[in-house]
Amino acid sequence: MDPRANAATAWSPVKDLGNLFALGTTSSELHLVSLDFSAVDAAPHVVGLVPTPAPFRTLAWSPATKHAAAHPWGLVAGGLEDGTVSIWDPTQISTGHIDALSTVSKHKGAVTALQFNPNKDSTHLLASGGAYVSTTSLDLLPCSHVFRDGDVWIMSVNNVAAPGVFSPGTALDSTSAPSEITSVSWNTTAPYILATGDSSGHVTVWDLKQKKPCFNVSVYGAISSLAWSPHEGFLLLTATRQSPLVHIWDLRASNSVPLVELHGHHGGGIVSAAWCPHGS
């Protein structure tokens, strides 16, 4: 692996395979890597390598519960710079098979966020977010541009070879500057609820049953983290790259004031934030 390349990472969620993780690099390679935790100084071992047509921006790994017999190591999804989402079987990668099981081309810009649904009966659902596109139009004045906001898609891999793709719904009209989706997060208790955040600080919570937003809030800075409480499905954490504040929102209350505002000791913004899975 090119030591100069950055990489998106995803740990194996499959029981008894906790020593495996995937790396999707900016040098357009997918690496399946094994670690030996019993050896203090053991180097990571590359189990398989897949060349890709474009650099990686994001990566996700699902246990793919419904497909456990056919894909015992689950499914790995990669979001690429060219706007495609490809899905691989890590079991096949480990035996030298490098072809993707399927590829979806719906995003207009780079794929910037991915997450498989963590709920047991919904691990076949994959949410993806994309970057906005700016293109110069010859029909407009010189130096003017047409902007297309980052888009959000839901993919169902019930049929892994031909995933179904649908929109979460119609977003509320926005007069703000164009933005890209920077984070997607499935609710931990309600599998039909999805939160998305963008580079303008807008957070939208989607109800996929109703196919429309059920909660909207705006904060200062580009959203770096969205995280649902592991035990209370109505509590959502938000953090941004431009502020040292972490906000926790209660979806049952007003969207104008957060339930909790945590003041961090960071010199700048927050790159990543998460709930303790064992806390309350």
Automatic annotation (TrEMBL):
<dbReference type="GO" id="GO:0015031">
    <property type="term" value="P:protein transport"/>
</dbReference>
<dbReference type="GO" id="GO:0007029">
    <property type="term" value="P:endoplasmic reticulum organization"/>
</dbReference>
<keyword id="KW-0677">Repeat</keyword>
<keyword id="KW-0256">Endoplasmic reticulum</keyword>
<keyword id="KW-0931">ER-Golgi transport</keyword>
<comment type="similarity">
    <text>Belongs to the WD repeat SEC31 family.</text>
</comment>
<dbReference type="GO" id="GO:0005198">
    <property type="term" value="F:structural molecule activity"/>
</dbReference>
<dbReference type="GO" id="GO:0070971">
    <property type="term" value="C:endoplasmic reticulum exit site"/>
</dbReference>
<dbReference type="InterPro" id="IPR040251">
    <property type="entry name" value="SEC31-like"/>
</dbReference>
<keyword id="KW-0813">Transport</keyword>
<dbReference type="InterPro" id="IPR015943">
    <property type="entry name" value="WD40/YVTN_repeat-like_dom_sf"/>
</dbReference>
<dbReference type="GO" id="GO:0090110">
    <property type="term" value="P:COPII-coated vesicle cargo loading"/>
</dbReference>
<protein>
    <recommendedName>
        <fullName>Peroxin-7</fullName>
    </recommendedName>
</protein>
<keyword id="KW-0853">WD repeat</keyword>
<keyword id="KW-0653">Protein transport</keyword>
<dbReference type="GO" id="GO:0030127">
    <property type="term" value="C:COPII vesicle coat"/>
</dbReference>
<dbReference type="InterPro" id="IPR001680">
    <property type="entry name" value="WD40_rpt"/>
</dbReference>
<dbReference type="InterPro" id="IPR036322">
    <property type="entry name" value="WD40_repeat_dom_sf"/>
</dbReference>
<dbReference type="Pfam" id="PF00400">
    <property type="entry name" value="WD40"/>
</dbReference>
